[in-house]
Structures are given as structure tokens and as C-alpha cells.
């Protein structure tokens, strides 16, 4: 019997639940076609889901041929919270086990405040109070930075100004719920793989551009985290030896050249923007036809395209998904980006599709929630003790509702 890649199986089991919850009952053959996986793998995965009480076999449907048993989801009432933490705001969503966002909120947030973590706890508590805490399996948090272990959640983030912040422990004590913490682009990558442009692909590169530049990598169906959770730090790829100073302390990093702060600085250096104007004003100038503003975006697109070509040549993804605040001005990046990207790719990779997805906070937070939804099937133990606690809540809830 062929050995099954358990990380791939974990994601596919979550995808099966998402499909059944979102699209309704389906046969095993329909699931295999919809998720683009083998019928044998679907049979194996659904056998596990049936054993665990997550899905059930419904009435036999037949149209004259061999009857096909349809599967339906059992645990419709269970949810997970997803939290996206940014330097100036927090987005929170509640997501059903089918992957559908049930409700969402966005609130102002000051990451560098001395009471930032207490404020975050209060925001999440207030969100929980508006729903049913009993149905929540756990909380997933996505943020810009490095998280060595999801289930521990110690955070280093230059964007947030956090160093060795024990966020996971603080949230667990403050919320009395299981909590998993992950880099925000990795969390977004999970959402894209399960529900978005990367669905049905085992090798996906998700790249975000905004204040910083980040990448999430799915290889053979599993997130690549690296030795200490820092894989995909595309923004700190060195591209110019004598370039501008980056927030990481090095010079000439990609995000120090194409990040929104860098573009604003470029505009101020030629007196295109005033000291108190920012990226919105720069985009407005480009919209009005200002040639200098458009050139700033075009130059960023060229640099970004060449850097991304290096990542595509290295990882050989099925698809590249671009997102983040920067895509709001993508039409000013796109021409120079495409020329630079395709010109720097090796011949066999020049046809790699690039999908630009509208930037939405909900999708980022949905990815954080998906981290929780995947923990009951976390065969590799990436979520550690928190995965076990999520599973306990999961099983207890099923037993109560039987």
C-alpha cells in the first residue's frame, strides 16, 4: 500500500468538511472530482471522518445505476475564531467548520502600546460575547512576524514592534480557549489552499505586498515553515547592496524598495508628497494621471517582478497568488511586473499562472481560523498541545449533541 502524505491528508480532510458544509451532501466520487484528488484517497479520508463522527452517510440516492451513498456534515454548529493582527487594526471573524465566515468585525489597534496584548484580549472577548462561546473550538491568530511553534505562540515582529512576546500563553489565559498563532501570510496561504485560488493545487506560492512583503509556501500539500517558522521571508531578500535601510537593520531588502513606506519615501524625496501624506495620496496622484506617481509604482513592479521570478524558479509552484494592500494599485504595477517576471523566469516556468486577488482582511482572518479547523486532523503535531485541546472540545461537542 502506498504511503499517504499525512500533511496533505490533513488539509484534504479539512477541504472535505468545507465542501460538504458549503455545497451540501455529496458522494465520494463527487468529492474526488470537486477536490481534484484520487477516489482512493477520498475513500480513506471519509472513512476516518465517519469513524470520528464528523460526517454521516445519508439516504441512498439512485438513478437506475449503482446506488451512491451521499455524505453529509454532522458538526454544523461548531466554529473557530480567526484574528488578523496588523500594526493599526485587528480583524476578527467567526468561521463555521464548513469554512464559511458567519460574522466579522474590524477594530482600531495600536501594536506598540504598552497594553497592546490586553487590548487584543478585550477585543476578542467582546467579539465572543456577541455569539456562543460554547460552539467555539479555538482561536487562530495570524500576524506579521516569526512564530517558532503554532501551539506555543512566541512572537517576534518588526512590524508590530514585538520581541519574544508570549502571545499564545497570554491569549490562552485571557480567553480560556485553545489558541494557535502563525505568521499571517502562512495563515492566508492555508485559506487560499482550502477556499481560494490555490484550491486543488499541491504547490502554491502566496505573496503579499503592502507595508512589507511576505510569502507563504505550500509544497506537496503542506505549509513550509522552516527551522523556526521563518520560511517565506521574501521581503528581506537582498536586492540592492547599497539600497535603503530596512526595518530589519539591513540595507537593500526587497520590502525596503517596494513596500508602501518605501514608495511614499520615494515620492517625498522628489517633493511629490508632503510630510503628512501617504500611500493613499500617492495612489490618488497616479489615478489623476501624474507621470511621476505612476513611474514610482512601475519601478516597484519591475523590482518586484524580478525578485518574484527568483522565488518561482526556486519553488516551481503550480500557481502564484498575489494579495495585500499593494494590489489596490496593481494596475500601475502590472505592466512592468509582467515584463520583469516573465523575462527572468527560466523557459520551463514562464507559463506559471499569477492570480491577483483583491485584498480583504476577512480572508486573512479566515486563514487564521482555518489553522484551528485543521488541528483535529493535525497528524504531525504542528499545533502541539493546543491541537489536542481543540480535539477534546471537538469530541465533547459531538457527544453532547448526539
From TrEMBL:
<dbReference type="InterPro" id="IPR043129">
    <property type="entry name" value="ATPase_NBD"/>
</dbReference>
<dbReference type="InterPro" id="IPR036390">
    <property type="entry name" value="WH_DNA-bd_sf"/>
</dbReference>
<comment type="similarity">
    <text>Belongs to the ROK (NagC/XylR) family.</text>
</comment>
<protein>
    <submittedName>
        <fullName>ROK family protein</fullName>
    </submittedName>
</protein>
<dbReference type="Pfam" id="PF00480">
    <property type="entry name" value="ROK"/>
</dbReference>
<dbReference type="InterPro" id="IPR036388">
    <property type="entry name" value="WH-like_DNA-bd_sf"/>
</dbReference>
<dbReference type="InterPro" id="IPR049874">
    <property type="entry name" value="ROK_cs"/>
</dbReference>
<dbReference type="InterPro" id="IPR000600">
    <property type="entry name" value="ROK"/>
</dbReference>
Amino acid at each position: 500500500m502506498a504511503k499517504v502524505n499525512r500533511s496533505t491528508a490533513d488539509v484534504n480532510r479539512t477541504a472535505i468538511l468545507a465542501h460538504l458544509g458549503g455545497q451540501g451532501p455529496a458522494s465520494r466520487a463527487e468529492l474526488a472530482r470537486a477536490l481534484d484528488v484520487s477516489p482512493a484517497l477520498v475513500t480513506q479520508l471519509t472513512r476516518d471522518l465517519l469513524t470520528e463522527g464528523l460526517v454521516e452517510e445519508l439516504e441512498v440516492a439512485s438513478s437506475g445505476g449503482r446506488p451512491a451513498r451521499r455524505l453529509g456534515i454532522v458538526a454544523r454548529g461548531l466554529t473557530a475564531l480567526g484574528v488578523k493582527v496588523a500594526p493599526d487594526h485587528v480583524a476578527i471573524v467567526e468561521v463555521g467548520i464548513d469554512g464559511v465566515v458567519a460574522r466579522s468585525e474590524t477594530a482600531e489597534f495600536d501594536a506598540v502600546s504598552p497594553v497592546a496584548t490586553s487590548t487584543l484580549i478585550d477585543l476578542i472577548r467582546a467579539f465572543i460575547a456577541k455569539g456562543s462561546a460554547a460552539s467555539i473550538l479555538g482561536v487562530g491568530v495570524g500576524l506579521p512576524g516569526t512564530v517558532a511553534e503554532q501551539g506555543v505562540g512566541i512572537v517576534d515582529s518588526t512590524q508590530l514592534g514585538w520581541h519574544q512576546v508570549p502571545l499564545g500563553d497570554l491569549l490562552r489565559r485571557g480567553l480560556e480557549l485553545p489558541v494557535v498563532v502563525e505568521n499571517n501570510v502562512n495563515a492566508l496561504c492555508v485559506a487560499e489552499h482550502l477556499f481560494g485560488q490555490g484550491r486543488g493545487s499541491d504547490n502554491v506560492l502566496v505573496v503579499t505586498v503592502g507595508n512589507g512583503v511576505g510569502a507563504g509556501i505550500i509544497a506537496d500539500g503542506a505549509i513550509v515553515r522552516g527551522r523556526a517558522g521563518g520560511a517565506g521571508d521574501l521581503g528581506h531578500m537582498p536586492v540592492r547592496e547599497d539600497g535603503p535601510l530596512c526595518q530589519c537593520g539591513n540595507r537593500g531588502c526587497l520590502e525596503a524598495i517596494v513596500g508602501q513606506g518605501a514608495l511614499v519615501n520615494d515620492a517625498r524625496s522628489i517633493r511629490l508628497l508632503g510630510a503628512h501624506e501617504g500611500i493613499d495620496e500617492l495612489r490618488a496622484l497616479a489615478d489623476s494621471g501624474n507621470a511621476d506617481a505612476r513611474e514610482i509604482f512601475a519601478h516597484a513592479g519591475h523590482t518586484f517582478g524580478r525578485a518574484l521570478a527568483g522565488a518561482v524558479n526556486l519553488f516551481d509552484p503550480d500557481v502564484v497568488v498575489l494579495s495585500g494592500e499593494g494590489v489596490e494599485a496593481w494596475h500601475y504595477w502590472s505592466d512592468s511586473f509582467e515584463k520583469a517576471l516573465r523575462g527572468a523566469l527560466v523557459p520551463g516556468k514562464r507559463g506559471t499562472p499569477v492570480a491577483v486577488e483583491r485584498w480583504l482582511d476577512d480572508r486573512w482572518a479566515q486563514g487564521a481560523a482555518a489553522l484551528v479547523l485543521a488541528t483535529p486532523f493535525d497528524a504531525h503535531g504542528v499545533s502541539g498541545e493546543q491541537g489536542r485541546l481543540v480535539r477534546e472540545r471537538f469530541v465533547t461537542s459531538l457527544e453532547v449533541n448526539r
